[in-house]
Design a protein that fits this description.
The radius of gyration is 11 Å and the shape is globular. The mean pLDDT is about 85. The chain has helices spanning about 25-30, 50-65; strands at about 1-5, 5-10, 30-35. The relative contact order is 0.22. The longest helix is centred in the C-terminal third of the chain and has 16 residues, at about 50-65. By secondary structure, the chain is of the alpha+beta class.
Length: about 70
């Protein structure tokens, strides 16, 4: 999900699509977070540095899924 300059990718760590590593449990425990205005190439994962932003985006994504 992307909101403004922030992009959240759930369930994976590291480069690539991660489709082989994603599982339902990992969607809430790991992921990648990028601030695209400062990192358009998505090289600096901010997941651990901004846990509240990751949590907010996860909550927004879940809300969208249920609508």
């Amino acid at each position: 999900i992307q909101q403004g300059d922030w992009k959240l990718i759930q369930g994976t760590k590291g480069p690539g699509s991660g489709k082989d590593r994603a599982n339902p449990d990992s969607l809430f425990t790991m992921g990648q977070l990028y601030e695209l205005s400062n990192d358009p190439a998505e090289q600096n994962d901010l997941w651990n540095k901004f846990p509240q932003k990751a949590k907010d985006l996860k909550r927004l994504l879940e809300k969208i899924k249920t609508q």
